[in-house]
Amino acid sequence: MVDQFSPLVRRITAPNGNAMTGPGTNTYLLGREQIAVLDPGPIEDSHIEAIIAAGEGKIRWVVVTHTHKDHSPLAAILAEKTGAELIGSVMENPDAFQDETFKIPANIKHGDRFVTDEFTLEAIHTPGHVGNHFCYFLHEDQLLFSGDHIMDGSTVVILPPSGDMKDYLDSLALLKQYDVKGIAPGHGNLIGEPAKVIDGLIRHRTMREQKVVSGMEKLGESSLLGLLSTVYDDVDKSLFFFARFSLWAHLLKLERDGRAERTSRNEEFDQECWQLIV
User: Fold this and answer.
1) Domains in the chain: how many in total?
2) For residue 111, is it left (φ>0), alpha (ψ between -120 and 50) or beta?
3) Does 239 lie in the same domain as 172?
4) Pairing state of beta strands 85-87 and 143-147?
5) Mean pLDDT across the stretch 163-191?
6) What is the pTM of this model?
7) Which of 40, 115, 175, 240 could make a disulfide contact with 74, Cβ separation 3.0–4.6 Å?
8) Nearest by Cα to 151 from 14, 15, 22, 10
């Protein structure tokens, strides 16, 4: 199904819905005469067919917000089938979550603009969820394509070591400098009132950090895994696997801020012990 949002923007949702991706990964088609496909998504035959059919032979660029496996694996295949140019950023030291099939001669840079007769798309470097994450701002519609930086109905997982909580918060503050009227997320529905949403996300992360501090005050020296159920007592335990990473990101931020320290190290990050610095 193709959803038309404006004369310039269409959406096709990939059939990969689950607890982490919501209804599935949103793929956006920008333009009508020369089309940019943004976040082509995972390799699913029906999704490939839907994108190519909607593109009508006019796909010129394939753009990715980041190279996680629910966003970019289809990019190389789509480029091969259409001759489109790949645009995005590749991590220098990829982790297990990265799609290593995405290869480009040079990374996109913050502030780069893609200008066609129909639209101008600006790249905004927004590290946080992961270090190579970019949002894209469509000037004509004042629409922000947020990838996994801002999601509909849930907060995103921060994935250290490339993901970074301070970077995430700084990136949210950066987005407030743009005249955004709406947010098109990588998962879920279009989001209105961007400034209010961004402020809410900053407030949520600040409150979560305070829960980390309160948990450490209560438990004393503790492993990350030991802190998990206290800090995320409002989250379904089925999500704890990914919540561990965001908790790790909070602890690393507290360490950087001089408020917490690791008291033991372990090959498994969730077994490392931490305590507050008093």
Assistant:
1) 2
2) left
3) no
4) unpaired
5) 97
6) 0.95
7) 40
8) 22
14 near 25, Cβ under 8 Å?
yes
Q: How far apart are CA 139 and CA 94, in angstroms?
A: 31
Q: Taking Cα atoms as reference points, which of 150, 129, 33, 14 lies closest to residue 74?
A: 14
pLDDT by residue (tens digit) across 37-60? 999 999 999 999 999 999 999 999
Q: What is the pLDDT of residue 167?
A: 97
Tally helices (H) and strands (E) across the chain: 6, 14
Q: Which amino acid type is present at position 32?
A: R
Residue where a domain stops, chosen among 150, 171, 192: 192
How far is it, in rounded angstroms, from Cα 258 to Cα 15?
Answer: 44
For residue 147 the two structure tokens come to 């990838």
**Exposed e or buried b for every residue in 77-103, given b needs 16+ CB within 10 A?**
ebbeebebebbbbbbeeeeebbbeebe
**Do residues 152 and 58 both lie within one domain?**
yes
pLDDT tens figures, 232-258: 999 999 999 999 999 999 999 999 999
Which stretches does DSSP call E strand in 43-95?
59-63, 85-87
Identify whether residues 226 and 181 lie together within a single domain.
no
